């Protein structure tokens, strides 16, 4: 009986190991992009700050929103809405999305003057969008990201079941032993941070649930999305524009009143609908940092008179549950130390995915010569696993090198990132892996140094200095990796001899 | 945070030291002491206590998130230390002990 159950157990383990390998392999490169971009997104406002070194002024949220609305009033025509995110301790600009003369803009506005910042860039928003949209048009990027997240959850669960010595492997790493080292590394990265991996994958999947499981919504609301929206946000005030012009009432007193309404919580976002019209509405939301589950609350004012139209705080348990799950994934609540722990967890997940991709090849090469498919995959690993970070660092370098007055500058930065990653991918496919790995890793290391030195390296802003230090640390680590790789290649290969027993 | 981090590190150290492979590196001359036989129990108890200590935080939700983050950090220190500089994880034990005491006092 025990023999049969052991056979079943081993068979199940093998099946799980097979599923773990294939689910990881199928969208492994997509997962790598998502994990790396997601890890960097933990510091989205800080990266944006690094990418706009000219903005050194810090202003309180109310004054910054005031300056932004003054500038927008004077410089936009026929707007349907201004959507503003106030600066906080991490971000030092007003992130504004608005329309003017039929065109849509997304700009960072100076907190003191309210005018757009000279260096037009997406900043950390690029990494954030890349994380779940993958630079693909809606909804394809999000659908692909959802599918990849589902496969990752399957890979995590099957990985746990397939793992024979789960707890022993937490503490075991044997370097310089070929396949054994890759397996140890992959296991340790996966197991040490397992609670984080499960939490971030599950919550990430649920943030896109409305897209990948829309049937509940369609069953309840059909095509009537407005009814769904008004049920979801019963505090929202919608007014059609009257066509009669009226200046926006002073926004400062509205924001101060909103802050009092939110029990002192600072203003986070301000949406102004129909600005310059008697039908203008100003809706204010508090910051999202008070707790893990962001508690939706809003207060709306008549934009022409400044009187309160409606105030509302979310109390429904289902929505609060969703907000907690969403908040866990976004980590807006997290204080500095917890953000670094999120970053560490994300980096370990990224490395677990990458090491799994490499392990697939290493394992098969030690058994027999690689098939054509696996040889292609090996080269794709070189181009993909190093090409993606090359594209990301090229984005930072482009931020420093592109002229400030250039038209569509932010888009040009993204183009540089995508073209660089594409070129690195092609190079990885063209070169033999023995040459491709050190060459592309060396290039990545040099790009990191370049990005750090093109920045004001000893700036007074601690975020600039930290960004530069991180780039330099990455460059040094990659440099050491390349040096070790080259040294190993130049060392004579030991000849393996079979020991014949006497 | 200090109490949780101290308990978690000590638990991971005990769990690693219970394994034959890591015992010489982590326990050096203490390998033959009688307490070695109880390291597994001690390790899991400390692990449980580190989770229980989250109740002492003001916001236990945030505490749990921090614990989830501390696990790879402290485990990573132990793992890399054992591989490259065994003195580091050993030095971590008195530091964790100090954190534990400081956490209890504060």
TrEMBL record, chain A:
Coiled-coil stretches: none
Pfam families named in the record: PepSY_TM (PF03929)
Key words of the record: Membrane, Transmembrane, Transmembrane helix
InterPro entries: PepSY-ass_TM
Stretches that traverse the bilayer: 21-43, 143-167, 188-211, 340-362, 382-402, 414-432, 439-459, 465-483
Domain of life: Bacteria
Protein name: PepSY domain-containing protein
PANTHER family xrefs: IRON-REGULATED INNER MEMBRANE PROTEIN-RELATED, PEPSY DOMAIN-CONTAINING PROTEIN
From TrEMBL, chain B:
Name of the protein: DUF3325 family protein
Sequence intervals crossing the membrane: 35-57, 64-81, 87-105
The keyword Transmembrane helix belongs to this UniProt entry's keyword annotation: yes
Organism classification: Bacteria, Pseudomonadati, Pseudomonadota, Alphaproteobacteria, Sphingomonadales
InterPro entries to which the protein is assigned, alphabetical: DUF3325 (IPR021762)
Name of a matching Pfam family: DUF3325
UniProt keyword annotations, A-Z: Membrane, Transmembrane, Transmembrane helix
